[in-house]
């Protein structure tokens, strides 16, 4: 074989291996991301950079209460009165790719996939009530020290306000309640749709550190 061709093939092989390893690391271990919306203000601000852990997805472990997670946006983000079923308050995903290439493109390359970032409020089996501008879990008012003073939690229009979190799902909301589309609108998030947990803020350097 021509030495030049051999060298090109060796470089191509190394590049392919590096890309595969990078994709595997990003999917199973962790990845950086940029905050694009204001739904988690003041905890997170637009254009801040975060490091996400994908380990909970890899181990299929539910996040803990209070953790900030990212998850695939549901395909149905609003309901009519007749469609709301508080006996089964689970987000709907009905636009899944049907072939291997489509799944690889969406879930590994993350092309054409929309994700949300919210805080876990309630866990499986817990009774959630949203009333009087506050959140109640199993009948007790839920303390949320990360919210700005005066923030009111309610369900605007049609949504989920009195339900039990189903098994293998979590109920999550944005800290900026009046500017957040979250589980109040589309229902609880299944474990298999949770992508990652936020670990640290990496930019700006002045705000570097663990995110609570």
Description:
The protein has 212 residues and is α+β, with helices and mostly antiparallel strands. The protein has a single domain, classed as Ribbon (Umud Fragment, subunit A). 21% of the residues lie in helices and 26% in strands. The protein is built from 4 helices and 12 strands; from the N terminus they run αββαβαββββββαβββ. The strands form 2 sheets. Strands 1, 2, 3, 4, 9, 10, 11 and 12 form an 8-stranded antiparallel β-sheet that branches. Strands 7-6-5-8 form a 4-stranded antiparallel β-sheet, with no helix packed on it. It starts with a helix and ends with a strand.
Total domain modules? 1
Report the portion of residues in β strands. 25-35%
CATH architecture: Ribbon
Number of strands: 12
**Which homologous superfamily in CATH is the superfamily?**
Umud Fragment, subunit A
Under CATH, the topology can be stated as: Umud Fragment, subunit A
Low-confidence segments, given as residue ranges, are none
CATH domain class name = Mainly Beta
Q: What's the total helix number?
A: 4
Helix content: 10-25%
What is the string of helix and strand elements?
Answer: HEEHEHEEEEEEHEEE
Give the rounded overall mean pLDDT.
Answer: 93
| CA-atom Rg in angstroms | 20 Å
Biggest beta sheet attributes: 8 strands, antiparallel
Classification by helices and strands? alpha+beta
The end-to-end distance, rounded to whole angstroms, is: 58 Å
Using the alpha-carbon principal axes, give the shape: elongated
Brief write-up:
The protein is an alpha+beta fold. The chain is built from four helices and twelve strands.
């Amino acid at each position: 074989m021509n030495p030049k061709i051999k060298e090109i093939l060796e470089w191509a092989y190394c590049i392919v291996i590096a890309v595969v390893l990078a994709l595997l690391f990003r999917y199973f271990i962790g990845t950086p991301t940029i905050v694009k919306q204001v739904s988690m203000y003041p905890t997170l601000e637009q254009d801040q950079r975060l490091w996400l852990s994908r380990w909970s997805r890899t181990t299929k472990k539910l996040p803990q209460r209070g953790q900030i997670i990212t998850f695939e946006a549901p395909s149905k983000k609003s309901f009519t009165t007749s469609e709301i079923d508080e006996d089964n308050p689970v987000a709907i995903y009905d636009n899944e790719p049907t072939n291997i290439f489509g799944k690889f493109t969406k879930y590994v390359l993350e092309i054409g996939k929309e994700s949300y970032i919210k805080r876990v409020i309630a866990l499986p089996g817990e009774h959630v009530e949203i009333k009087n501008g506050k959140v109640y879990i199993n009948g007790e008012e839920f303390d949320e020290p990360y919210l700005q003073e005066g923030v009111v939690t309610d369900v605007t229009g049609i949504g989920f306000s009195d339900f039990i979190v189903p098994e293998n799902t979590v109920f999550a909301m944005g800290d900026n309640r009046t500017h957040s589309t979250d589980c109040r609108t589309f229902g609880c998030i299944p474990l298999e749709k949770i992508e990652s947990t936020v670990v640290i803020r990496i930019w700006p350097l002045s705000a570097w550190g663990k995110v609570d």
